[in-house]
């Protein structure tokens, strides 16, 4: 199976799935269209990772800024059905080893964290609503203030998502961007037609920098989900209902 790896440290594993595997559409999200194939795709992924769906956990994402700590007892939730997924959370973190945390995305931005001092991993879904709501900052700040993580030991991966040159936003979104907790003026460019091009990856990276996570510890994926049609689904490009996942686990 084709996977894009975040090659960080030997004590973690982290990947993004791609849209096809030997001609098979690798949708990973139940959407009522091809749910049996989705389940088979998930089982294929688990086998590739020498794991099992009972050691994986997913939320039912709703573009919130809510997050939750998960444990081995949550393993399997959201794997065989959406019915038992953790509802309304767009981020998870854990200290438990061999538990895979999933985040679904197409053009939205997946973000992974590894707090090396406390051996904590996190998976975050940051669409534009999560980005302007500063979900990455909220999760990271919680880990620093409540879980003992030191910023100098935090590593982050900002995964494949829409690049600024394709992310057109109107005033309704930009007005929210302007209200974020730091100066955001350099992260959007106004076009001649009045719309803006928004740098969502940059906004996410700045949330981490504001908390003193070292720049050198932040990996930003060069992949654009709009441009790399051979690798990624994209709602903005073709209204695709399919999703891939970015996932992380402590070994």
Quick recap:
The protein is α+β, with helices and mostly antiparallel strands and 251 residues long. It is built from 6 helices and 18 strands.
Description:
By secondary structure, this protein is of the alpha+beta class. The protein has one domain: CNF1/YfiH-like putative cysteine hydrolases (4-Layer Sandwich). The protein is 21% helix and 27% strand. It is built from six helices and 18 strands. It has helices spanning 35-48, 128-132, 135-146, 171-177, 200-210, 235-238; strands spanning 3-5, 12-17, 20-21, 24-25, 56-57, 59-60, 67-69, 86-87, 91-94, 100-105, 109-115, 120-126, 154-158, 168-169, 188-190, 196-198, 218-220, 244-250. It has a six-stranded mixed beta sheet with strand order 7-9-12-11-13-17. Strands 1-2-18-10-5 form a five-stranded mixed beta sheet, with no helix packed on it. It has a three-stranded antiparallel beta sheet with strand order 14-16-15. Strand 3 and strand 4 (24-25) form a beta hairpin. The longest helix is centred in the N-terminal third of the chain and has 14 residues, at 35-48. It is globular. It starts with a strand and ends with a strand. The model has no long low-confidence stretch (mean pLDDT 97). This is Purine nucleoside phosphorylase. Belongs to the purine nucleoside phosphorylase YfiH/LACC1 family. One of its GO terms (molecular function) is copper ion binding. Pfam families: Cu-oxidase_4. Keywords: Hydrolase, Metal-binding, Transferase, Zinc.
């Amino acid at each position: 199976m084709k996977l894009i790896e975040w090659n960080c440290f030997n004590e973690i594993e982290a990947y993004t799935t791609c849209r096809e595997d030997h001609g098979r559409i690798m949708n990973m999200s139940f959407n009522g269209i091809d749910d049996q194939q989705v389940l088979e795709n998930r089982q294929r992924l688990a086998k590739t990772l020498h794991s099992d769906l009972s050691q994986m956990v997913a939320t039912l994402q709703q573009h919130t800024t809510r997050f939750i700590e998960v444990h081995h007892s949550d393993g399997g939730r959201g794997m065989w059905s959406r019915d038992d997924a953790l509802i309304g959370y767009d981020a998870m973190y854990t200290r438990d080893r061999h538990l895979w945390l999933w985040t679904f995305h197409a053009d939205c931005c997946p973000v992974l964290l590894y707090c090396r001092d406390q051996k904590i991993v996190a998976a975050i879904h940051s669409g534009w609503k999560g980005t302007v709501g500063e979900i990455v900052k909220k999760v990271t700040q919680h880990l620093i203030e409540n879980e003992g993580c030191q910023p100098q030991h935090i590593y982050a991966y900002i995964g494949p998502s829409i690049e600024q040159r394709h992310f057109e936003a109107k005033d309704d979104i930009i007005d929210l961007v302007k209200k974020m907790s730091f100066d955001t003026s350099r992260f959007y460019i106004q076009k001649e037609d009045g719309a803006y091009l928004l740098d969502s990856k940059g906004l996410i990276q700045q949330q981490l920098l504001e908390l003193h996570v070292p720049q050198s510890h932040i990996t930003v994926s060069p992949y654009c989900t709009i441009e790399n049609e051979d690798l990624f689904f994209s709602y903005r490009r073709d209204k695709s209902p399919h999703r891939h996942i970015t996932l992380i686990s402590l070994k």
